[in-house]
Design goal:
The protein is α/β, with parallel strands linked by helices. The chain is 38% helix and 14% strand. The N and C termini lie far apart (58 Å). The protein binds pyridoxal-5'-phosphate.
Length: 397
Amino acid sequence: MATFNPHFKKIPKGYFTAEVFKRTKAFLDSHPGTELHKLGVGNTTEPLAPSVIAGLRRGVEKLASAETYSGYGDEQGDARLRKAISEWYGKRGIDIDATEVFVSDGAKSDCANIASIFRARSVIAIADPVYPVYRDSNILTGNRIVYMPVIEKNGFAATPPKEKVDIIFLCSPNNPTGAIATRRELKEFVAYAKKYKAVIVFDAAYSEYISDAKLPKSIYEIEGAESCAIEIQSFSKSAGFTGVRLGWSIVPMALRCENSARGELNQHWNRRQTTMFNGASNIAQEGGLSILSQIGQKETHAQIAYYMKNAEIIRKGLEAVGMTVFGGIHAPYLWVKCPKGLSSWEFFDTLLEKAHVITIPGSGFGKNGEGYMRLSACDHRENIEKAVRSIRDTITL
Ligand code: PLP
């Protein structure tokens, strides 16, 4: 007799954006024809950079001839891309071997699957609020969650848990708060991980939005992190690959946990991927190679600057009406405090009904997100300007 996984009862019925879509639809049904402005879901909107399009075309062209056609590739990723990723780290002074790079179809699946190389019923520390995938995927596998509250009083910085945990998920720059972990904060986590033989899973999906060279873009900038940290990366927000799908994980040979020998966790992730994943798209990987080329880096960083200009426009516009805004400096997310003690959903409704602006309630990212909203800077400039103007014209505090 089959019985369903009982842990499904412990997570919300829908992904947290479902209620946003439901309320938006209800509003549109009762106000047909209203133009809505999206400052919500962090989806990319700008066309891919020319060099990246050229890379994707190259990938397609290769499939058009018997001489260059390829079918299944290595589950770990195209050797050229693994090498390019290792060199990308090398240029930042970080020594990653290509055998430590595992190309994926994006960061979300790796974030959700990585805990499978550790024993069941592990204790997992995650920030609250944070990208909900860490919480839900770990609850579904029966792991126990310990929350690290990130709140306004401490600048939305996470600190290591008081109790001993097995795995710590860190996300910097953080979705949703836009906060970034400093070198000192990351050193504390590395020290904690070493003390308790815990493993850090560092989600660096927004690293390319960091504009201050003194701030760490990779956990491996911290001395000793290679022995206690896995890093997960994505081409989604750094190069507009949200729909193309490509990312990677670094599982260092030096990584150790309580009972593993050198290289064993790398081997386990390799085994997991070769068993459950058939490799990223060969076309996408050609695009990835172009993103990492000199011209690709220049063009994709210009796109990031475009989104960050949007973030500045949002910040200034909201501050002009008296709102308190965090984030939006090293991440495409702004974390806005709800005025007058409104709850996240109350302010969501106000912004929708009065300003016709769609946002994401902070409470969807965890208990400590209550009383905040997440706004995304990823949209066309004219839409961002319209949304900000609409808020300015309709919301008075
Ligand atoms: N990690 C974080 C923190 C994110 O915010 C997102 C997407 O919004 C992802 C991972 C997912 O990235 P990908 O599109 O590569 O799956």
